[in-house]
Please model this.
Amino acid sequence: MDLRNQDRMAISRRDAIKGLALSGCLAAGGDLQSLAAAVEKSQGGDKHNSYKYRIAFGAWINDMRNEPLPLQDWPAPQMDEETIRSAIAAMDVQAEAGFNYLDAWGLFATKSYPPDIVSVFNDKIRRKRVNELIEAGKKREIKLLFGLGLMSWGYDEIIKSDPEVRDPASEHPHAMCGNKDKAWNYVKKIIDCALSEYDFCGVHLESADQGWCQCPACGGRDGTVGYNVRLNIRAADYIKSKWPDKLVTVIPINWLNGTGRRWFNEDDKARLIELSKHIDCFMDLGWRGTYIADNERKDFMKKLHCAYGTAGGAHLYHSVRWDRSTYFLPYIRRSGNTIKQHYEEGARACMLYQGPVSNPATEINIAVGGRMLSDAKRNPEDVLAEAIEFYYKPKTQAAHKKLVDIFLRAEDTYCNGWDAKAFAAGRDPNSPWCGMPGEFYLNEKLYGKSPGPAGYLIEPYLNAAGRKAYREGLVSILKELPVIKGSFDDTGRIAKIRRAVIVTLNLINTICQCKGESWE
Model:
């Protein structure tokens, strides 16, 4: 099917897309008719097979940045012109793929809100750029969520200036005490500023990514899950009392830290069911996977009073310090098949991790993921073929088929080298998250002040045999790219793939040389 020949758009939609292109916002690289038809198809989808909440998860706004910040610690706090340009380029891909929400953190603060709160929301430059992002979303039928670290993430300066927000018994450097009304006043002020001053569609609540207060009245009272549930119910009820139509999502990442358990038990699930009465989406995602066991997910979802969602399986977390064109990591099958499975079990929400769309694999991961969320009955391979048709515009069927194979081969030759035993041995054996990754990284440490090492090419990700297989797969791709490069109107995408593969091979061979492994 040649999407370039489709013309199914209403005049209003076509005019809107044309307006975006004329203003320089359109980054997809396709012609207007092609984009218009694809947006119409993906936004409509098959409503019977579509996730209701198709959330593009930023996660931090500069994680989608197309230009690297090689010396910047994580999360990057910049809200500059490149931040907005890159986010809008990502929204072009997201809109075409069918996402209807963007969830990106760091629009106003990362580690530290100012103690007065109001000044950062009233900053003229930041206000202009955040509103530009919100308006760009509206033109693409994408609503923006506001990310809130509930009692942690963003309170460092507040804690320093107002020690009474912490319990003396707590030694946590970043978390306020959830039992102190003074701490809640800061949280409410952030919510009030965000939802009164800006047109966010709702709030993503996250209460434990940085840990939480462990004083007797907080984590010590109801245990970690009980405390986090109580915290989120209070915040959700406050939001709904003032803005009943705002979407509220809750993410339980890190809720089981310190318990020695990977899965929520029956007591935990009973608390979650109560939480579900107060929110719109319970997004069951952690660093290595879900907190509801696979064989319990279907029955658990039936008991919830809200939508249930996941992160759609494997997802790469991009390092903002890395050159965006130096890696090629598609994961179409792994994510697409998980989206299918979770939909069949009853999931109707999903937060798919995003990244810089200047990276060709990231662009296609997003394009395929959004299409799968819009029609979860489809096969990932078919969706991949459609996305490549749209973005690469093959001139021949043979070239089209070959490029589809290249993407799938790049995924398989890397991911098939993962070994569950190696992951378990390579991580803290006392951690419940020592197994295979849901989230994986270019380098294991998000924090840093220079581009980190290529951790994804060494143990526990790849051993010597895995590196050998991955090298052979990439070499085969590198041999085929020159043969087909003239068979696409791809606006330079094939050249980007070639560069990424060359750099990756250089990294693999350097690692092998240092380890005494053969690299020829």
